[in-house]
Specification:
Elements (H helix, E strand, L loop, with lengths): L2 H5 L3 E2 L9 H7 L9 H18 L5 E6 L2 H12 L5 E6 L2 H12 L3 E6 L8 H10 L4 E5 L1 E2 L4 E2 L3 H9 L3 E5 L18 E3 L12 E6 L1 H8 L12 H8 L11 H17 L1 H21 L15 E5 L6 H12 L1 E2 L1 E2 L8 E5 L7 H16 L9 H11 L1
Parallel strand pairs: 1-12, 3-4, 3-5, 5-8, 8-9
Antiparallel strand pairs: 2-10, 6-7, 9-10, 11-14, 13-14
This protein binds pyridoxal-5'-phosphate.
């Protein structure tokens, strides 16, 4: 067993989870309180206030669902969609596909529009789709983690609302890592996950709903198909009545609160900028050794760098070596990108210049063992030059 295997020390630079700060781990280990203990209820109130800050919203219905990002996705669809409701799902990667699957399971009549993986939608495509077939809800992924593409939302939101629909946004990867404006962009339902740019362990899913979304929930005729995710009950626990629904994951909420405090101490704008800066340094380094980004130029995500595995280079061998020799985890490709992409995450606590430099140096060593020609040292040289200016 080598040193790394013994310590299990990792640098998490994949599509999530990201590195967790010791402050957050310490919070996780504090004594467990009862889920109705007045002190714990105060903690939940604080979680809600901090979530409003990161979502940039005043939405009253803002809370952390028990479960990972996918639970947040199901929460949004299960509560907003009634059987037979027409829903438009925009698909440009794995998570758009997952949304369509979830919407169908909730009884939606789903229509799909698709663009090539790595590309983003332009607002006319949404306009056209809604003209062809009206929808009550339009769902779209803000940061498509499977392709590294970032979807602009402002114009799309205007079109969706002009057509009288609600806008449902997947912000699992974007929240806390890039600009997201729930109120200013009029997003009606938005969900995220604790383990990406918030850098908390996986297990909670922040969600927020506009008053229009709440109105649609309040007017439901059919019960929400999922008992566990039914917000009409969960609201009464997070809200005034404090009615027991299910046992809140108490310690996970301590951890999330600590992670959110770290976000607000840094300041959201500074955090977004840190992600951009480190992305640019990484990109300069990768491109200097001929590695190409897969997402559409101008729409490449700072926190998720999807690049093409160079020809003849063995995807798995490189990722295994990165993990075994350097303790660095990066992601492979999903779906259409399986075996063809590396997904290098710079999320939350993982988005540091130290990690970028370490990764580029480690990657050069791994690539040197592959049938791939590049100028040795060029990645670090370019990264250093970029970091200096
Ligand atoms: C990770 C991710 C999810 C799913 O979250 P889980 O925590 O794995 O359930 C959904 N959407 C996007 C865009 C993601 O990156």
């Amino acid at each position: 067993m080598n040193y790394l295997q013994q310590t299990m020390k990792r640098v998490l630079m994949g599509p999530g989870p990201s590195d967790v700060d010791p402050r957050v781990l310490e919070a996780l280990s504090r004594p467990t309180l009862g889920h109705l203990d007045p002190h714990f209820l105060e903690i939940l109130d604080e979680v809600r206030e901090q979530l409003k800050y990161v979502f940039r919203t005043t939405n009253e219905l803002t809370l952390a669902m028990s479960g990972t990002g996918s639970a947040g996705m199901e929460t949004c669809f299960a509560n907003l969609v009634e059987p037979g409701d027409p829903v438009l799902v925009c698909i440009n990667g794995v998570f758009g596909m997952r949304m369509a699957d979830v919407a169908e399971r909730c009884g939606a009549v789903v229509s799909r529009i698709e663009v090539e993986w790595g590309k983003v939608f332009d607002s006319e495509q949404i306009e056209q789709a809604l003209k062809n077939k009206p929808a009550k809800v339009v769902s779209i992924v803000h940061a498509e983690t499977s392709t590294g593409a970032g979807q602009p939302l402002e114009e799309i939101s205007e079109i969706v609302h002009n057509h009288g629909a609600l806008l449902l946004v997947d912000a699992v990867t974007s929240l806390g890592g890039m600009q997201l404006e729930v109120d200013a962009w009029r997003i009606d339902a938005c969900y995220s996950g604790s383990q990406k740019c918030l850098s908390c362990p996986p297990g909670l899913s922040p969600v927020t709903f506009s008053s229009a979304a709440v109105k649609k929930m309040d007017q439901r005729k059919a019960k929400v198909q999922s008992w566990y995710l039914d917000l009409s009950m969960i609201r009464q626990y997070w809200g005034g009545e404090r009615l027991y629904h299910h046992t809140a994951p108490v310690n996970m909420n301590y951890a999330l609160l600590e992670a959110l405090k770290m976000v607000s101490e840094e300041g959201l704008e500074h955090r977004w900028q840190r992600h951009v800066n480190n992305h640019q340094i990484l990109k300069a380094g990768l491109e200097a050794i001929g590695i190409q980004f897969l997402a559409q130029p101008g729409h490449q995500l700072p926190m998720l760098n999807a690049v093409a595995v160079p020809e003849k280079v063995e995807d798995l061998a490189v990722r295994r070596q990165l993990l075994q020799e350097f303790g660095i985890e990066i992601g492979g490709g999903l779906g259409a990108f399986k075996g063809k992409a590396w997904r290098i995450g710079l999320m939350g606590a993982s988005a540091t210049q130290g990690n970028v430099m370490l990764f580029l140096a480690a990657l050069e060593k791994c690539l040197a063992a592959q049938p791939y020609r590049f100028e040795k040292g060029a990645a670090l040289a370019a990264a250093i030059a970029k970091a200096e200016n």
